[in-house]
Amino acid sequence: MAYDKEYREIIVQSFDAIKVGDEAQFEHVLTQEDVQAFASLTGDFNPLHLDAKFAKKTLFQKPVVHGMLSASFISTMIGMLLPGRGALWMGQTLDFLRPAYVGDTIKLAAKVKQKSPATRIVVMKIVITNQHGDELIVGESTVKMPILKDEEKTMDENAKKTVLITGGSRGIGLATAKKLASEGHAVVINYLRSDREAERLVESITKAGGRAVAIKADVSDPDGVKKLFSLAERSFGPINAIVHCAAPANVPQPFDKLDWNAFQEQIDVHLKGAFNCVKLGLPNMTGSKSGDIVFIGTIYTDGLPPSQQARYVVAKSALTSLGRCLAAEYGPAGIRVNIVAPGMTETDMIASLPDKTKMLARMQTPLRRLAEPSDIANAVSFLLSPAARHITGETIRVCGGMVMA
User: What is the average per-residue pLDDT within 330-353?
Assistant: First the structure.
């Protein structure tokens, strides 16, 4: 597994998800700033590392990066990738084979050699190489995975799910992630741009005793979704529920001002994104004869659609149709597929709408208010619960009575 900013991950690892043979790797370019910071932190101002004139007199001919500076990135591996956040570094053996220099790109690779369920100890082989493939440092790391409070929850094991929530860092997705995590589900928060929001959400959930991982990926990209599923399964095991909330920005525009690309953008995220995620999730669901899928639709696929929203309504209509088709096809395999259709909801998506438009929507709603993201999250929670075990192919409208069918 590569560690890069494009697919940033924030992991609280599940001990059960770790397997012998699991691998991870990432790269780092060593800089002079790294060397100076390490020297200042440790007090190791050895001229071999900091004085070019002194180093010139040695066999190395130029300053050598502290060996322990290169080795310190093992901590990054253990804490962020493999085994992941929550891991405690217990022991280490190291052999320093070659020096590293400022400007070198080091690659740190780890592979699980042993795993002890009794002690929750993981032993990993560590290899650090440079850009030429030369081995600089080799060794073994011993890591302990503590028992987390969320592993002791009393929730019925059969009701716990690993839930992928696309578009999960903001709005309806965020509210859904919080709601499901509070109920004991492990939530995989997919996002595309909101790095800080995703970090804060994971921190909030884990501080409250929940289980969460945030993974950056474009759901319209099949390769991105493959990596998303791989990272998610490393954290919590196979995904057995999908909530598709991802949605691109949508500013009302007259049809005659739109080109096909404007339609394609909506279709790629709403429909293709659902297609990609379901394709990856189905093998496990069909194998276990159990699974739940919820698509976030809209009430505007019923009745009179709003003006200047053709691309949005068309994409959501296609998504709703896909949900019904999947429900009919995979119901015999124990997989339930439903749609939650919100009315106008207090999220960033309507922030640009005139206040008059929002006020009119409130007045046309029997309950005289717009939905909150938590209202939608509550409906999703119900559909994923055992209480909804005989509901599939349905559209649950959460709109305060604006549409009654």
Answer: 81
